[in-house]
Specification:
By secondary structure, the protein is an alpha+beta fold. The protein is built from nine helices and twelve strands. It is 37% helix and 26% strand.
Length: 324
Amino acid sequence: MLNVSLLTGLIVDAVPGKGEDAVCSLLGERTALIACMDGCGGSGAQRYEFAGESCKGARIASHEVAEALKSFFDQSGIAQDGVASIGDDEAASCLKACIDARLADVCAALGDQRSRIKSKLSAVLPTTLALLLAEPVAQPDRVSALAMWAGDSRVYALLPEGLRQLSADDVTGGADAEDNLTDDGIMSNAVSASGMYHINTKRVELRGSCMLLTATDGCFAYFPSPILFEGALLETLEAANTPAEWMDSLSERLGQIASDDYSLQLAAFTQEGETFFDLKRRYARRMERYRRDYGEPIRRLIADGDREGMRALWKNYREQYYAK
């Protein structure tokens, strides 16, 4: 039977100490929770005095939602009974209730500052949310997972067959990952103190060892093609000797292109007793195929400025990227 062999991640502030990303990673009796939040700096640019410091609403929102997830994990029963014990709608409702209660407490703590924001309540404490609950199931070599999200932060499964995006971006104009790199789509849904948002859900069952991750857009939105995000994950994994080394290398790779905060949380499910090197071996064949079929071709196309060729390669890649 599979088990959680690795919980790791990274979070980097574009301006040290002022970042608007937040993360959460929890492990219950049998279930892992990983989550990333990205405070919405545009609508959340209002500054408040909170917890002894002056900070933007976006930063407050992401960090307070991270705290709300701890209550959700316990109150929903998932920490003890597992994700299979709760339906999608019930999980989303419980999650939203915990977030709304936490943000209501924050608004109350803002005191007199609330008068500044009443006319634009929908913009108070806005943040994205990408959350994944996952656990091994009784049937051998399977993982049951529930993705939950609001906004354009993402939930992924990194499988030996390739990277899959499990969430769908809440943006106007569609959710195609390549189009969203260049289109000026507006985020159509995000957590906020108004409560005027919804939690999307998607439940999947995955066969065999796998890695699951959540990420804010600073991790993937600055690549010239979404194909390259998988490359960054696999290439840094291939070169690493330890999980910490992997995350350090990945953080450095992302930092070379990102102009925003970026955060990622990852849970790996492998057979009991398997090591980090066993995990690497499971992805070695995919690395070879990725490099041959996608990594080297996309870099040539980018160097040549061949947009049509890039789109054709993406069309081929997206079949497994969006596989059901």
